[in-house]
Specification:
Ubiquitin-like (UB roll), about 750 residues, 16-stranded antiparallel beta barrel, about 20% helix, alpha+beta, 3-stranded mixed β-sheet
Length: about 750
């Protein structure tokens, strides 16, 4: 509106007779009416200055210039004996912005959005911007399905030429999808097709996921999902004919109708390879998953082109282009494909840039890289580098981009962007069971001390079972070749009676040095040597097996421990693994020269199977075996294996899923079996959020004196793992489905850590 006013005033001024302002030489300039605006600011916008000759034309220019600033709602010019008097009326400023009835959106987020269009406290009030903000807020409510929302604004004048703005919002109820109809389908049932899309009618969890609220973006995504579903099953001519979205007069119910044409189902008649073949054709054909006679699948075509591109990328052709050109025979309902390959120029890496590491040193990230600066580009090496950086556990996200270097055709940069997470933690653990009480434990760990990549841990466990003190230090790159070195010092005091394991106590003090030697990018050999001394205290009511052990071997024993192990880990992430295998084998031997002569061997196999983008199956298996290796020794009872608890066999109290002594106290065993199967999926309503996911699991296991199936326990349940800003939170609710007499059950278990 103020632009119209400027035009009218300018037109009026231009039509004034010459005598309206007699030309005069400006001796001085005075500004009147300003309250907040500095006089110097006004002078800076004036097109005239002292000494100029004032005319009607310059008066019009002056008024237009001052109105154009947006600071003033009225401007007039007067002349007093050679003094140019500029009289202005300032626009009010915004003193405050308030909202009434705003619940759907966060107030700070709305204020930030308004600030971007120029409406904020302290700024000049503009009615046009106010109307724009009001309409935008209404539009945002429409995207949330609140079609009955109403927004009205009130402008309240305040002292010192200020105004207060109030947005009164009547949000109303969100409109719900009452019906989704799919018309024209013949090959698949409407029920099957509805399972593929996200929009749905109200259900048990839709209050949280908002899937029963319509939005144009959701519908567009669902139409593309339907298209992919058909194209992946051979329907090359599938088409969405029309969509209809209607809303009832009360704006509470929405009806969606989708009309489709399926077309015929196509099979693959032939697959050819063309273009510049830098690789043997036989090798390229192995990468093509679409074969003659198969039902056409767009997903398999895309998978094949990606495999060929990645293979060429591993040879340095970062910009390889692979296209699958179809030839349709509509009469036979067949499609032939030719994969045209254009490898482009071979490129090399000019520079590797690391971004986002505010605490972690560059060298900690760079030493994990297998792609070198100045070397030929390799997509395999870059993917391997990304996995190695992710497996460090220091970052929530690791992203790598390979932009071309401007002005060149054979160079790329590798930009590594990381999002750091807290690597120090104060971990707390707890478990609850009927009549079992509370078990607490804790430790202080810094996995990346001073950003150096070195690990330091101080552990304190104060559960009613034991009290542990431990200090651990690890340098993962003790040598430039990646050989690690670590030290451990610990003291463990176990009061078994407090946990129902029998009336005895043990105190173990020891230390060790260990090394890890990388054999490949995913294989490491670990070995170490340590010493520990254990004192056992028994009592008159101690179980007989412990009294007999002390009588035979004495109350104090020592051991020289030699350890060796092998680890293979190619999981794609430590935080959110979706594929890969982790294997670990280890052995511990009490070597001659000390009183304890025994050995323990353990093996773990863990594998992640990607079912889809959001769903993963995890299988974990563990075996353990121990014994003495002379006629006069046996596996010490305090070296027994134990099973049970939130990190092994859920649904059972920690350490208790095993044999009992004559008094019914768990005593562990020389044999261990553990199996876990977990189906991992996103937390409802938080798809795409990598910090939290749920699982449905089956656990089975036992600790015993033999590998006997009769000793196996099992449980089923649900779990949640959340890598929260305060640290990892792991919750499980499990119900034992196979237990033995005397087992202690824990339905609800959790561990929680606070990070810093």
């Amino acid at each position: 509106m103020h632009f119209l006013r400027v035009g009218v005033l300018a037109l009026a001024l231009s039509s004034l007779p010459a005598r309206a302002i007699e030309p005069f030489v400006i001796k001085d300039i005075r500004v009147e009416g300003i309250q907040r605006t500095e006089a110097g600011t006004v002078f800076s916008y004036l097109p005239v200055k002292v000494g100029d000759t004032m005319t009607d034309e310059k008066a019009s220019q002056t008024i237009r210039a001052l109105f154009a600033t947006g600071f003033f709602r009225d401007v007039s010019i007067e002349a007093e004996e050679g003094v140019l008097v500029v009289v202005v009326q300032e626009r009010p400023s915004i003193a405050q912005i308030e909202f009434t009835g705003l619940r759907e959106f966060d107030k700070d987020t709305v204020l930030k959005a308004m600030n971007q269009i120029g409406l904020a406290e302290g700024r000049i009030f503009d009615k046009g911007l106010l109307d724009r903000a009001e309409q935008e807020l209404k539009r945002q409510y429409l995207t949330r399905g609140r079609y009955g929302a109403n927004v009205s604004t009130t402008v309240t004048p305040l002292e010192r030429n200020r105004v207060a703005l109030n947005f009164a919002v009547e949000e109303g109820d969100a409109a719900k999808i009452r019906q989704v109809s799919i018309i024209g389908n013949q090959a698949f049932s409407e029920k099957e097709l509805k399972r593929q899309i996200s929009l749905r009618t109200p259900g048990i969890l839709t209050w949280y996921s908002k899937a029963d609220q319509y939005s144009r973006q959701k519908l567009a995504a669902d139409l593309e999902t339907l298209r992919s579903y058909y194209l992946d099953r051979g329907y090359l001519e599938f088409n969405v004919e029309s969509t209809q979205v209607s809303i009832t007069p009360d704006k509470k119910d929405i009806y969606i109708s989708i009309s489709i044409t399926e077309g015929p189902k196509y099979t693959v008649a032939d697959v050819k390879v063309g273009g510049e073949l830098l690789l043997p054709e036989a090798e390229i054909r192995k990468l093509i998953t679409l074969k003659r006679g198969d039902v056409f699948s767009r997903a398999r075509v895309a998978e094949s082109t990606k495999k060929i591109s990645d293979r060429l990328g591993s040879e340095g052709y970062a910009f390889a282009n692979v296209n699958a050109a179809p030839e349709l025979d509509k009469e036979k309902r067949q499609a032939s494909f030719t994969f045209f390959i254009d490898p482009g120029r071979r490129v090399y890496v000019r520079r590797i840039n690391v971004l986002g590491n505010n605490r972690t040193r560059d060298e900690v990230i760079r030493r994990e890289f297998r792609q070198m600066e100045g070397g030929w580009f390799s997509s395999d090496k870059i993917a391997n580098s990304r996995s190695r950086i992710d497996r460090l556990g220091y970052f929530n996200e690791v992203n790598i981009e390979t932009p071309a270097v401007q002005g060149t055709t054979d160079q790329v940069d590798v930009n590594v962007s990381v999002t750091e997470k807290p690597t120090g933690s104060v971990l707390l653990g707890a478990g609850f069971g009927s009549g079992e009480g509370v078990i607490l434990s804790g430790s202080v760990t810094q996995q990346n001390i001073f950003g150096s990549g070195k690990h330091v841990s101080i552990g304190l466990n104060t559960s009613k079972l034991n009290t542990n003190y431990a200090l651990s230090y690890t340098d993962p790159f003790y040598t430039v070749d990646g050989v690690s070195r670590g030290f451990d010092i610990y003291q463990r005091k176990i009061n078994a009676a407090n946990a129902g394991l029998g009336d005895y106590t043990t105190q173990t003090t020891g230390g060790a040095v260990r090394f890890g030697v990388p054999i490949t990018d995913i294989d490491t050999i670990n070995y170490g040597l340590g010493y520990e001394r254990t004192s056992i205290s028994t009592f008159a009511d101690s179980p007989l097996i412990y009294l007999d052990y002390v009588k035979t071997f004495g109350s104090t024993s020592d051991a020289i421990l030699a350890t060796v192990g092998w680890t293979r880990d190619n999981r794609d992430s430590l935080i959110y693994p979706t594929k890969g295998v982790m294997q670990r084998a280890s052995a511990e031997v009490g070597v001659p020269g000390a009183s304890l002569k025994y050995y323990k061997a353990q093996y773990q196999y863990q594998r992640y199977f990607p079912i889809s983008r959001d769903y993963t199956l995890m299988l974990n298996g563990e075996l353990g075996y121990g014994a003495g290796y002379s006629d006069t020794t046996a596996l010490p009872f305090f070296k027994n294996f134990y099973v049970g608890g939130v990190n092994s066999l859920r649904g059972f109290k920690v350490f208790t899923a095993g044999p009992k002594d004559v008094q019914g106290n768990p005593r562990g065993g020389s044999h261990k079996v553990l199996g876990n199967a977990e189906f991992l999926f996103p937390f409802p309503g938080l798809q795409g959020e990598k910090s939290v996911r749920m699982s449905a699991f089956v656990d089975t296991g036992m600790a015993s004196e033999s590998f006997a199936f009769s000793e196996m326990r099992a449980a089923v349940g649900l779990g949640v793992l959340w890598v929260s800003p305060m640290g990892p939170l792991k919750i499980s609710v499990a119900a034992p489905i196979r237990s033995l007499e005397g087992d202690s059950k824990q339905i609800f278990q959790f561990t929680f850590g606070g990070a810093f």
